[in-house]
From TrEMBL:
Its cofactor is Mg(2+). Its EC number is 5.4.2.6. The keyword Membrane does not apply. InterPro entries: B-phosphoglucomutase_hydrolase, Beta-PGM-like, HAD-like_sf, HAD-SF_hydro_IA, HAD_sf, PGP-like_dom2. Keywords: Carbohydrate metabolism, Hydrolase, Isomerase, Magnesium, Metal-binding, Phosphoprotein. It catalyses: beta-D-glucose 1-phosphate = beta-D-glucose 6-phosphate. It comes from Ornithinimicrobium faecis. One of its GO terms (molecular function) is hydrolase activity. This is Beta-phosphoglucomutase.
């Protein structure tokens, strides 16, 4: 990988820097399995549902896409809804309780290969930002001990506050490049989710890297990843 061609790296968080995509996946599975069972829906929730409908999207957009896949209509509700409410927001909030329980009890360690790439880019003076749909991103970064490596973090809360549309739209990535003062064409997007690769491909970024943590190398390149790796350490190069 020739980093000479780029001035910034824009990292997705869950599944790219930390193995938290797994934690999200497990929390979604528990919530949706209980919900679909309680409604007597015959087609159960599977991991394929996560990758197709939820992965990488903002919380309530993931819920809405998953419900649509089963032709279930619920009121949207509001983010203040309790986690027992049968609304899009209520279901999302239930999943979030499960996610934060696991994060707080088990903690999280960043991928070793990702830390190695961060060290490499830091030594080269490449600017770095985190671009995550998750409102939990600051807590995950702190738990992994890597918060101070990123001067710019565009998370779900920043996107909501600035009214930036979430992934698969490119706006959160574009905003992060702007905040770093780097033209998009000199920035690399690194993503493990189909919706995130689509976001990178929809902008005019210098390069979109897919990180295959389960979405599938072919699917990631079909959606616009120009390079696909299994581990970020593969991107450490001389130049
Ligand atoms: O509910 P949160 O933590 O705000 O984040 C929503 C999404 O954040 C993304 O980063 C994850 O890839 C998704 O799996 C998750 O559903």
């Amino acid at each position: 990988m020739q980093w000479d061609d780029y001035d910034a790296a824009l990292f997705d968080l869950d599944g790219v820097l930390t193995p938290t995509a797994e934690v999200h996946m497990r929390a979604w599975e528990r919530m949706f399995t209980d919900f679909l069972t309680s409604r007597g829906v015959s087609k159960p929730y599977t991991q394929a549902d996560y990758f197709a409908h939820i992965d990488g999207k903002p919380r309530y957009e993931g819920v809405a896409a998953m419900l649509a896949s089963r032709d279930i209509e619920l009121p949207h509700g509001s983010p203040e809804d309790s986690s027992s409410e049968q609304t899009v927001c209520g279901l999302g909030n239930r999943k979030n309780e499960l996610f934060t329980q696991v994060l707080r009890s088990e903690g999280i360690t960043a991928y070793a290969g990702s830390l190695a790439l961060l060290d490499h880019l830091e030594s080269r003076g490449v600017a770095m930002a985190v671009v995550s749909s998750s409102k939990n991103a600051p807590e995950v970064l702190a738990a992994a001990g890597i918060a101070d490596r990123f001067p710019v973090v565009v998370d779900g809360a920043v996107a909501a506050q600035r009214q930036l549309p979430g992934k698969p739209r490119p706006d959160t990535y574009t905003y992060a490049a702007e905040q770093l003062g780097v033209p998009s064409s000199r920035a690399v997007v690194l993503e493990d989710a189909i919706s995130g690769v689509q976001a990178g491909a929809a902008g005019d970024f210098g390069l979109v890297v897919g990180v295959d943590r389960g979405a599938g190398a072919q699917a990631l390149s079909d959606q616009g990843a120009e390079v696909v790796v299994q581990d970020l350490a593969e991107l450490i190069g001389d130049r």
